[in-house]
Amino acid sequence: MKNRDRPMNLAPASVTDYRALARRRLPRQLFDYIDGGSYAENTMRANVEDLQRVLLRQRILRNVSDIDLRAEVLGERLSLPVVLGPAGLAGMFARRGEVQAAKAAEREGVRFCESTVSICSIEEVKAATSAPFWFQLYVMRDRGYAEELIGRARDASCSVLVLTIDLAVVGARYRDARNGMTVPIRGSKKLVRAWDIVSHPRWVVDVALRGGPLTFGNLEAAVPDAGSPNDFKDWVDNQFDPTVTWDDLAWVRKHWPGKLLLKGILDGEDAKRAVEAGADGLVVSNHGGRQLDDVRSTASALPHIVDAVGDRMEVLVDGGIRSGLDVVKMLSLGARACLLGRAWTYAVAARGEEGVAHILRIIRQEMKVAMALTGNRELSELGAHALDR
User: Fold this and answer.
1) CATH topology of domain 17-174+235-380
2) What are the CB-based long-range contacts (under 8 Å, 24+) for 20-25?
3) Catalytic site includes residue 287
4) pLDDT tens-digit profile of 11-54?
């Protein structure tokens, strides 16, 4: 049975199932925002396909009765080597989606990372949770507002600042352009977009009517009409700073005393510069294939980055991770932990907080099976020897 024909009364058992549910429940423009990449989406597909080609090495007759998945990431103890990565507009996918995801992460003993362009504000997430969470920041032209965001994250006791550095300009995301997410739409296309929304009454009632305000909670003071995607796109184009260089990291360090993670590194030389710049860690990332197309997948880039930095900083990774097996593969390739993106956004769109918690439980169980059948009881035992070359 093809996944799209899976009966709705069966419980979702994988990220693929949650993707199918999200596709049914979201207006097309929002689903494509989650699901799409840039240009021809080659890198987005390569993230998944290259990871699928990494093979695990099955071992037998080892005592694997007690599997320990606990991890220490940037000094924090997690029940899994997993973080819910930053995802813009998550509060458009489910009612107050960022809060639901953060609560699920807390329940399951992992970290949630709040996006600069979240619907729920830093303060709203803080009020709804007791565990620390991370905050993702873009360096904007308006350094005063960026400094204010850093201060708000510090006041909310965010434990890690994730500085995204691969968005000097926004990638060409053709699905978003076709759906009117990033360019004005006119004429009959307005009717198509309106029908797309009203034909999803569950979303209209639960999110649009009951889930407001649907504004960018962290940017309301900066964006005149934070509810308008077109106005927001204009603001992004004017605020994302293409002049940022390595020298600007000193400015971030001046205002952020805590752990600093650089997200968006694919090149070994850039990884070495990250060490020199004083970052505590980096995320091997191509923005989920949403920025520059036809670049390395993260699974293929990861070993080169790990070799470049050695043990001088922690290396995390995102991109294409859809299962617990994928997490085990990435850790065997050298990552300390994995950031989930589409996996949790599909889940929050489909089933809210419980969906995100369920996805984390699925990944936990899949990791336990993969660890046992590769003959490894602790994460520290994983490495190249766990892969079939």
Assistant:
1) TIM Barrel (3.20.20)
2) 21/346, 21/349, 21/350, 21/351, 22/93, 22/345, 22/346, 22/347, 22/349, 22/350, 25/200, 25/202, 25/203, 25/349, 25/350
3) yes
4) 899 999 999 999 999 999 999 999 999 999 999 999 999 999 99
